Amino acid sequence: MSAALPVVVLVSGAGSNLQALIDAQTTPGYGARIVAVGADRPGTGALARAEAAGIPGFVCAVPDHPDRSAWDDALARHLAAYLPECPRGGLVVSAGFMKILGPTALRCATVLNTHPALLPAFPGAHAVRDALAHGVRVTGCTVHLVDAGVDTGPILAQWAVPVRTGDSEATLHERIKAVERDLLVRTVHRLATRGHTITDRKVTIP
Ligand code: GRF
Predict the structure, then answer these.
(1) With pLDDT > 70 as the criterion, what percentage of the chain qualifies?
(2) 3 alpha carbon to ligand 1 midpoint, in Å?
(3) So what's the pLDDT on residue 180?
(4) Which of 105, 90, 111, 75 is nearest to 33 (CA)?
(5) Reported pTM
């Protein structure tokens, strides 16, 4: 059996997506193993989940660096420390990480992100609010590869979630997150065990 692919998960919040990956990696043959969890701020619920699981955590906060470029370099150093075989031998998963990765960090590894809307609709930090405000009847979640833009990278997988009458941002986001966790777990497994190719933005996972 081949060794599990090392994964660094980047987080900013409660870490329910992280927890889903922590739980999934104990399944035999899952094919991915979280080697570290990085946050852009101290004291997040996600870092506490990492600690409880015995996974090393680190904080790389923008205000601790002179500018965004220095933060990008520092984040890249953290990633390289945990993923020495990268860019080919590892994965970075942005799971509720509320920062745009810079070019140096992006060169370190294949990076994927989970987003609570059906991209390219409603990119950015307020996807659920924006979808509700627009009056859509169906929204959902997207797992995609990260490029230099804001939620613009090639799409790996999407699942739809219907909007219910009377939904608030909170109720809709909770229903999306329940689906999103499952989609993320499945997509990381598929990428880790099968790899992927990209042609004209279209991703193929053999
Ligand atoms: C997810 O819906 C993610 O797509 C969005 O923020 C949420 C993070 O949730 N960017 P959690 O921290 O994994 O619980």
Answers:
(1) 99
(2) 28
(3) 98
(4) 90
(5) 0.96
C-alpha distance from residue 30 to each of 47, 79, 180, 185 (Å):
22, 22, 18, 9
- Check if the beta carbon of residue 76 is closer than 8 Å to that of residue 109: no
Q: Which atom of ligand 1 is nearest to the CA of 98?
A: 10
Q: Is 123 left (phi over 0), alpha (psi -120 to 50) or beta?
A: beta
Provide Rg for the chain, Cα atoms.
16
* Enclosing H/E stretch for 37: strand 32-39
Pocket of ligand 1 (CB under 6 A): 13-18, 46, 95-96, 114-116, 177, 180
Positions marked active-site: 115
Residue ranges, the chain, pLDDT below 50: 1
Distance 96 CA to ligand 1 centre (A): 4
Q: How many A from CA of 83 to the centre of ligand 1? A: 23
Q: What is the pLDDT of residues 145-161, one digit of tens each?
A: 999 999 999 999 999 99
Which of the listed residues 9, 11, 16 should we mutate to test ligand 1's pocket, taking the one with most ligand atoms within 8 A of CB? Answer: 16
- In this prediction, residue 2 carries a pLDDT of 65
